[in-house]
## 1
Amino acid sequence: MDTKSRYETLKQQVHEHNYRYHVLDAPVVSDLEYDRLLNELKAIEAEHTDWVTPDSPTQRAGARPSERFEKVRHPRPILSLANAFGAEDARAWFERVRKLDDRVERAKLVVEPKIDGLSVVLHYRDGVFVQGATRGDGEVGEDITSNLRTVRAIPLRIPVAGLRSKVDDDRPSTFDLRLPSHLVVRGEAFIPNQDFEELNQKLAEAGEKTYLNPRNTAAGALRQLDPALTASRPITLLVYQIVYSEGGVVPTRQWEILEYLKALGFPVTDVAMRFDDLDSAIAYTETWNEGRDRLPYEADGMVIKIDDLTLAADLGFVGKDPRGAIAFKFPAREVTTSLLGIDVEVGRTGVLTPKAVLEAVEIGGVVVRNATLHNFDYIAEKDIRIGDRVLVKRAGEVIPYIIGPVTDARMGTEQVYTPPTHCPACGQPVEHLEGEVAWYCVNAACPAQLVRNVEHFVSRGAMDIVGMGTKIVEKLIEAGKVEDVADIFTLSREDILEAVTKKDRKTEKEPPGKIADNLLAAIAESSKRPLNRLITALGIHGVGEVSAADLAGHFGNLDALSQASVDELQQIEGIGPNIAAGIVDWFGREANQKVLKKLKKAGVWPTFNVQRSTLNDSLARLTFVVTGTLPTLTREGVKELIESNGGKVTDSVSRKTSYLVLGENPGSKLEKAQSLGVPVIGEEELKKLAGV
DNA sequence: GATCCTCGAGTTCG
DNA sequence: CTCGAGGATC
């Protein structure tokens, strides 16, 4: 790209980011990233002074105010807070302010949740709500009074009469206060998680586009022109600060402000706490970091404030941030990043799966570079384009996925993605079955499929050959030692040594000899696995752990299974026409017959199925679903416990589910169970039910 | 024929 | 955990 077009792009980008930051109050890039763009722009302008026009972002101090709403100048600046990432940062902050003023040493601290919503400023004159504004750039916001009027949590009139007594009841001596004739408070408007889920569910059922997250939804609903639409969104708010007051007396301690606001009839958080020292404040903050799922809204951290607001004000500012408080940030669980490209992987069944290549970003403590996109329809449906800013979330705190593109951040340079027409591994044309979403590489000799196939064969739920990971599988195939899964059982020590030591010997931690010996032992061990495991391992399309166990129980050996007809197979519960046909098709293929012959010859020909010993039937006819991490039992352990007592374990919550067994950090299953009225129990109760 | 349920398959990072 | 799709059920 030449300098001139780079310059034009930069100008456009900086304008966009200004708009997102100042007007929408929803930046999509970090301050650091923004500064980088602005500096690059300035550098180009320094070189080419003749290019600079009055519309360059460098020629204007702030962003253009929105044309849609009236501007409101705030009576006092609406401040942002400095961030602390972890306890060390928070202690460093405290140490700095303590050195500035030794009163800090004995100061009390108030900890409040930092809700991820939209900051709003509410004006009351003689107790009547007269104006509401967005935060904007902190100096000037937008008048969204008519939208805010529709938010039921906002008192339109402060009930002065009823309130006096309430104040007097709660704190007879502390509040000797008069309601200010002009009172300006600050709060956070947001949509509670559960309401957001319900809203999205309703929209999805109506076939409408769903929202990305509660924050964007709330911000969008408050910043649009039709108050009726705002009213239809479940927005609420919590108030936590007095920005300005005139003609009255208000408390000077944060803790009392919260009580005072509550007494005035404002909604106030009930998770705020006051502490005598920093360590207790940090400890409290950290309990909410772990328990953030218990909060009914999205919180991006907790705020630690010096209770004495006079002292806090005396401490002054660092840049724009007041020294008297700090935002203790939780690790982000949802972030925006750039979609750099889309890779395509080939699975063992030949299915092509698109994988998002992302600009590296930290989510929940780990750096994420990739995310699954499930299938090509998913990309089209969500209208995800290469170059988009995308919202990424780690589902259940583990697997990242893309919620959707941030369409507001589009520059017009994004590319619509076209799915491949040929397999990225072998170059053969891909096929698509009518009515199915998946695209397949149907080349039986596709090298990518062979690797995945062998990986599946040796994986934990299948033949469970420990020590045979992706790397070793790839090397064995590359060296020509493994051409199909049966070759595993005729590998010699020399074969393994040759394959393993072929390249990058230096990176091996263990001596190759030891790897080979361990592997041979693991292979010998695996050759005695029960029939159901072997059937799972074969990787027949549509046959997994459960069906394999049914088939093994029904036929008893592979000879009988390989001769079974479609009709015979369909007699088995859970096997319908499609899977039956898939099984017959699999055994009819010459390559597979060859594999079977080799397995039999190698003595890998089990005739027994695994029988779980049923201790008793205390859990008979009960179906369980497990979510989260249990205190003592592992996932396998729970399954074992339930099944050995006659119960059943499934993966998804439905009306047929008897109990949801709940652990730490549960996923979305909890919400589903609650909405279906499925009883939720813990590990202890499960054990009691089982009679253990 | 529609709906609900269960299963399979693919998924990230350290 | 997610989605798609096969199978069971009404």
## 2
Amino acid sequence: MPALPAPLAEALLTGHERLPKRERTRAQLIQAAIQVFSARGVAQASIQEIAQVAGMTTGTVYNHFATREEIVDAVAVWLATTLCRRIDQSYAQVTDAAERMAIGLRRYQWLAEVSPHWTLLILQVSHATPSLAENIRDFCLSDLRMGVRQERFAVPSEEAAMDLIFGANQAAITRIALGLAPDPQAHGIATATLILRGLGMDPEEARTLATRPLPEFTALSAPAPAARRSASARRAR
Amino acid sequence: MPALPAPLAEALLTGHERLPKRERTRAQLIQAAIQVFSARGVAQASIQEIAQVAGMTTGTVYNHFATREEIVDAVAVWLATTLCRRIDQSYAQVTDAAERMAIGLRRYQWLAEVSPHWTLLILQVSHATPSLAENIRDFCLSDLRMGVRQERFAVPSEEAAMDLIFGANQAAITRIALGLAPDPQAHGIATATLILRGLGMDPEEARTLATRPLPEFTALSAPAPAARRSASARRAR
Amino acid sequence: MPALPAPLAEALLTGHERLPKRERTRAQLIQAAIQVFSARGVAQASIQEIAQVAGMTTGTVYNHFATREEIVDAVAVWLATTLCRRIDQSYAQVTDAAERMAIGLRRYQWLAEVSPHWTLLILQVSHATPSLAENIRDFCLSDLRMGVRQERFAVPSEEAAMDLIFGANQAAITRIALGLAPDPQAHGIATATLILRGLGMDPEEARTLATRPLPEFTALSAPAPAARRSASARRAR
Amino acid sequence: MPALPAPLAEALLTGHERLPKRERTRAQLIQAAIQVFSARGVAQASIQEIAQVAGMTTGTVYNHFATREEIVDAVAVWLATTLCRRIDQSYAQVTDAAERMAIGLRRYQWLAEVSPHWTLLILQVSHATPSLAENIRDFCLSDLRMGVRQERFAVPSEEAAMDLIFGANQAAITRIALGLAPDPQAHGIATATLILRGLGMDPEEARTLATRPLPEFTALSAPAPAARRSASARRAR
DNA sequence: CATGAATGAGCCTTCATTCAT
DNA sequence: GATGAATGAAGGCTCATTCAT
């Protein structure tokens, strides 16, 4: 499994060794599941191979997960609470909803470009279990509502807007992650522009927002307990 | 498997009993595969169950399809050459690309509303095998290009526009087919509006086009009386 | 299937086109079976593939052979009555039993060198059905008896001698046909020498006989009916 | 499966119940495979039947052997390390290569006489997998080389000699095991005589060596009383 | 006679899951 | 809590054979 870009990678590896043994074993199993999901696809991953990659036995897997589906769910939760949350946090300080939307779209496109394996994993897991998609959806929905309140967007219905945003961007991300876009950044910008236009923005402004460079990742506030961080993230939306 | 609306159903069921034996069996197997795909999902469908539903043995299946994937392909081709072609033909006489695009989007949304099972089947098969999606994609792409030539659309790139159209509409269709849209028609209209806006149309015109009623299905082949058919088409909406 | 050396090839192809239709179809099936046996091995050959190679259907195969095993038997008979008989005839005029034995051993070794595929086929068919091996065995046995009568050989028992001759030469032939003998002719000569020594011959004379070049194949007496020929061949033994 | 003669049987059955569970199951599977190989032939043996005979499910078989061929290999190794090794050890103290060769030939002939089933099994397994044959071959080859060094044998090539020894004796053993030799011992002696003559020995000495009675099996490991064992060995002949 | 579609038993293999240790 | 052997229900696929046409 290729490494994630640095600012995301650091989010994934916080304090595994500090966990109590039970949690540590569980975390190792999730890591192994991620590897196997990536290598074989979520549908083709077998529990025996996950156990083997984790250096454990199938029995151990069943001490932590009652069923195969629970593993997929756990991976979904894990991705949501590390990778996706980290991305969401990365533009917590941006207050313009249109800008936030543009960043959100482009950040996942960027991930598809630099870490296609992780992106395909997210897409697969989203498809297999609802929780991960819902998680991302929630973040997106609050930006959409904010944009409507700020009169940056004008849409006939929230649901239609969500279908536009999610459907179109997922298509773009998939294309990029599969290496089907010769110039991934150009494709991402173009798709983001079309989405913003669809949301009711002026075409020129849509293009400008979509073209703006992504903000840097902020440093992880190192020692703070995880509970505090997720609480503040929730408040920020 | 619930019946399709009349104008589509008649396209699917033409003259099975007139086929030579081999083709007839093959057609029966494809029908059985469609049932099982719908009931269990394409990924979970087993050849044994397809055979059983078709009233045959697994050996017979393998006389017609060398592998499981060939069945999926055959179903894809069958859907493309009956269902999808029929839909495409239904607005062959429309010359305004924007109108064509609106009809295409809304026609599949309509299908999702009146035949959610068939729609979910198409979505699944599209996901499993490339041929069906490509088929629809080609049709859509030529409308897009026509719209650009006619200066109805203005898009930064064809690929981005296709991701917008396909991604967003697929999301809308899925929502409708799953029964998640309280007012399916309103949702379809809203999504189509957003897509057309994204393609560069004036918001008001986008809304107008998306709201316009779908044209009736044209008569298929000669002998049948036209009146009956258009009546049933009207009823289906 | 690589061609046989000329003098044998001509024996295989006599008058197929002259046969009545039923016999011609049967002959074609046997040819197809030989091809498939060679390509896949006798055990792995399927009737469907034989039929396909013959350009026929499985039903036709069963019009000529009641069971799979009958095909193997038919191939065995066919090999015996063409290939092997032709080899046996090739030294019909030799009267010294020791010389005949040497020629027999070396001729099959030669076949293994120049036509390993045919040889491996013979070995496989011999193993699968008794008739072919028995056929060759008969020819060999009469030479052995002649040698004993001529006091060229001295053996404690006919059976032991046959096991010596057949077992040892089969091992040598297999080695040659598999390409495991760097110098096939030297290996053939050496093995033949040891066998002749085992049969009681003077070591030096054994070596001389085993080293002597093989006689040329005699021309096929073209127009003579097959019945006459096999009769005379039988008398010659 | 008929029992082996006592001195061999005791080698096969040492301490199964003392093995750790995994090894015990594996041993049971190998025993079951041997039974099925004997009953149906190696080529026709199915994993399902092996599992059933072992009182297990097919899944269990695959916990121990990744593929059908691995079972054959395991049986080959098992036969080599018990049956064949025991035979080889039985004349470890004989130093004359010619005598060793005679004993080796005759010991396997004896096995064919008293345990035709086991012998046919060995022949089949040897044919299916190289390891068992190579094992025996190595032992035989060192005797051959020793005999050449001791100037008991004179052969044009090692390979030819090996083909003579193995080919001829395999033929004799097969005949005996199939019950085709009215007097198995006489046939064994005769064949061994011919082989030794082929290897360059004086006919009379060859006959003498081949006729000499086989040495008794030596005691296996310490504690068992020697008297019982030699008695049973004598009885077995 | 030939056709070839259909059969059905059977094979190898995989894998989620259980459970005694 | 971990182990890992065992399970058993499937699944995909092959193939000798039959039989109506």
## 3
Amino acid sequence: MLRELPRYECLLGAAEEYPTLDPSATEAFLHLLRTGDVVFGVESSFLAQHNIRQGGFTVLMLLNRCCETPSTPAALADHAGVTRATMTGLLDTLEKDGIIRRSPDAQDRRTVLVSLTPAGVALAERVLPKYFECVARIMSPLNKTERKQLVGLLQKIQLGLSSEASESTSKAPPVGV
Amino acid sequence: MLRELPRYECLLGAAEEYPTLDPSATEAFLHLLRTGDVVFGVESSFLAQHNIRQGGFTVLMLLNRCCETPSTPAALADHAGVTRATMTGLLDTLEKDGIIRRSPDAQDRRTVLVSLTPAGVALAERVLPKYFECVARIMSPLNKTERKQLVGLLQKIQLGLSSEASESTSKAPPVGV
DNA sequence: GCATTTCCTTAAGGCGCCTAACAATCAATG
DNA sequence: CATTGATTGTTAGGCGCCTTAAGGAAATGC
């Protein structure tokens, strides 16, 4: 959220006041949050140009991945990492915009089958090529080796967080501290 | 937002359908967004344990940085990267919780001076050491060299985005595509 | 003195997320 | 078969953070 990040020298100075402050860790942490936020903002702007919200785009991608097998709201919610109530809201919006369709499941009358409408398919066909261009442009400052390096570093961080979560509690809340 | 990321092989497959899809770029992009999101979630959970919201924490950090020079809502909004209306809301919450105080400026009667209350200072003193511990724990999977590497890679990405924004328009909207 | 700018705030709204409660339905059990 | 317990999707209410638009008050420039 911070517009400008503190310089490394400032972190060194602050480390004298706060013994637990690890300058290199804090610097990397702030850059990670900041860059993630900026990149997310660029992606959101791109999607906004096509009148798509982040939530809707996620659903669009999930449905586009396997057109033949319509999903259920529950499955979509699991894959998207939101509650089912949230997914209901996302689907409401997409349905109102004519992008997805809800249909009953013959086998199980509790469940709803969600699928892309022709308009939804057309939207994906139209937006995705440009989307991937946008992604490529964002990542263009890095060559292939650097991208692999970045992925490796990020994976290490994520691995540490997931193992930490499983260590502390067996219930394993999605995000623990 | 996606819970699980597509494997690199899947990206290679999708690249055949979408010519603009650059597998290494997309992989790095998704990992960046995902890791940023997870780390942000861990930070938010930590703050929630102390009844602090992200917005409030940002203000707390900004005010704690230079206790002697009270800030104005406008300066805080600029540094936090939000509108002044948003900052008014954040300050309302913090003031209600007794963390900050608004006082008039003798020099300029339009201006409001914002400063931490003793309770706000105490909150910072109490939370910041643990916060930096949390940050250090998140970054613990990386050694110092890897952290520097990560910062370098992230800076390259950010630099590319900021130069791109200044290239396209002279009006320079905060986030361009 | 008057116009412009700057300050902060209010008002209204959007989006995304959550929890809690609910009716409908399925599955398993006695 | 009938009851119990799970599961599905939805609604209702709420929170956090963000925006734009409008407005009063005060400073500044001409």
